[in-house]
Design a protein that fits this description.
Elements: H1 2-22, H2 25-30, H3 37-67, H4 73-95, H5 103-124
Helix pairs in contact: 1-3, 1-5, 3-4, 4-5
Length: about 120
C-alpha cells in the first residue's frame, strides 16, 4: 500500500512539474530578447517537449499502477525505465539549466531526482 502511495505522489509531482514547465513557455521565450523567429520556434518546441515528457512519464507510471498494480513485472520495468529517464534528465538539468540564475531551473534536478527516488521506493517497499 505504501509503495502505491509513493508511486502516485511521484506521478503527481512530475505531472505538475511538467505542466508548470509548459505554462510559462511564451514568457520564457520572450526572455531571450530579440532572436530570430526560427530560434523562437526551436526553443518553444524544446521547452514544450520537456514538459510533455515529464507529464508522459508521470502518466505512464500512473496508468500501469492503476491498471496493472505495482507488483506486476511489467509495472516494475516501467518504474525502472521512468526513474532512469528522470535521472538522465536531472543530470542534464544539473549541467545546463541549474547553472542559470532562474530558481525553477535550479530546482529541476531536485524535483526530477526526488520523483525518481519515489518511483524506486515504489518498487522496493
Amino acid at each position: 500500500m505504501l509503495n502505491t502511495i509513493l508511486l502516485y505522489i511521484g506521478c503527481g509531482i512530475i505531472c505538475v512539474w511538467g505542466i508548470a514547465h509548459i505554462a510559462p513557455t511564451k514568457k520564457m521565450v520572450a526572455g531571450f530578447g530579440k532572436i530570430s523567429d526560427e530560434n523562437k520556434k526551436i526553443i518553444t518546441m524544446e521547452w514544450i517537449a520537456e514538459g510533455l515528457t515529464l507529464i508522459f512519464l508521470g502518466a505512464l507510471v500512473f496508468l500501469v499502477t492503476f491498471f496493472g498494480g505495482p507488483q506486476e513485472s511489467i509495472s516494475v520495468v516501467v518504474y525502472w525505465a521512468c526513474a532512469g529517464m528522470l535521472v538522465v534528465m536531472a543530470v542534464l538539468s544539473l549541467f545546463t539549466g541549474a547553472k542559470t540564475s532562474i530558481i525553477p531551473m535550479k530546482l529541476c534536478p531536485v524535483v526530477k531526482s526526488m520523483t525518481a527516488v519515489l518511483f524506486l521506493l515504489g518498487i522496493l517497499l
